[in-house]
Amino acid sequence: MSLSGTQIASLVLCWLAYAALHSVLASLWLKRVVAARWPRLAPAYRLGFNLLAVLLLVPPLWLTFAWRGPLLWSWDGGWAWLSNALALAAVAGFLWSTRYYDMGVFYGSTQWRTRERAAEDPGGLALSPLHRHVRHPWYSLGLLILWTREMDEARLTSALCITLYLWVGSLLEEEKLLAFHGEAYARYRARVPGLIPWPGRSLGADEARALCTPRPHQDDTTSTHGGS
Q1: Which domain holds residue 45?
Q2: Rounded to 5 degrees, what are φ and ψ at 218?
Q3: Contact at 8 Å (CB) between 130 and 76?
Q4: Lowest-pLDDT range, 32-36, 79-83, 137-141, 142-146?
Q5: What is d(CA 24, CA 172) in angstroms, rounded to the nearest whole number?
Q6: Total domains in the fold of the chain
Q7: What is the arithmetic mean of pLDDT over 131-146?
Q8: What sign does the dihedral 226-143-157-52 (CA atoms) show?
Q9: 106 is a domain residue
Q10: Residue 142: closest CA among 123, 124, 165
Q11: Exposure of 18 by Cβ count < 10 A (0-12 exposed, 13-18 middle, 19+ buried)?
């Protein structure tokens, strides 16, 4: 049985609520408020944010798989092999890319261990090999996994909501990265596409190293570009 308009609207609203709350919690403004008013809580902010982000996914994901709806498309034969191979390659790419991230900073364990109270994440601009081709490789890999799955009405609704939020979220994240890294990130953004690789718009290894080398006037205490 097809989903009702009320069910689809409820699922969309659930994702919108998640996106709004996630964006507020991830905002530099709120991090600075917590650091200023409750400095003892600041070292745990990133850990708490990640935990809450996972827990808040439960309602929209539960609705997605509880309601489902009729199957809209599935992959058969060679297409099934191809879609699964692409998804596995995306998972492998994600796991491989973690070696280029400071996962302690990403999870928040570093901030907790060192009792870091600054709103900005520690570190300078760092670009993994995947960042040479897209500015948000984890989002790109996530979208590849998402859109290589079979789709019913509920999953398609969720896939569209997730895709829209990753695109909007990447733009919001870049405002923080520009604040952290200034001219270096502005030059990087002008050179490399956001989510979809494009011929002729990749960085060479030397170009990436040059962007990550602080200039004399740059503040090298800004956050590492990672986690997307």
Answers
A1: 5-212
A2: -85, 145
A3: no
A4: 32-36
A5: 11
A6: 1
A7: 96
A8: negative
A9: yes
A10: 165
A11: buried
In order of 14, 64, 159, 174, the CA distances from 69 in angstroms are: 17, 9, 14, 36
In a domain, 115, yes or no: yes
Buried b (16+ CB within 10 A) or exposed e, 175-211: ebbeebbbebbeebeeebebbeeeeeeebeeebbeeb
* Contact indicator for 22, 49 with CB cutoff of 8 Å: no
pLDDT tens digits, one per residue of 110-129: 888 888 877 666 566 788 99
Copy the structure tokens of residue 27.
Answer: 């905002």
Domain assignment present for residue 226? The answer is: no
Nearest to 115 by CA among 219, 45, 184: 45
The predicted pLDDT at position 121 comes to: 62
Cβ count within 10 A of residue 53: 14
Angle of helix 183-191 relative to helix 153-181, nearest 10 degrees? 140
Contact (CB, 8 A) for 194 and 170: yes
Q: Which residue has the tokens 């909501």?
A: 161
143 domain residue, yes or no: yes
Percent above pLDDT 70 for the chain: 91
Q: Which two tokens stand for residue 182?
A: 């200034």
Structure tokens at 50: 């990640």
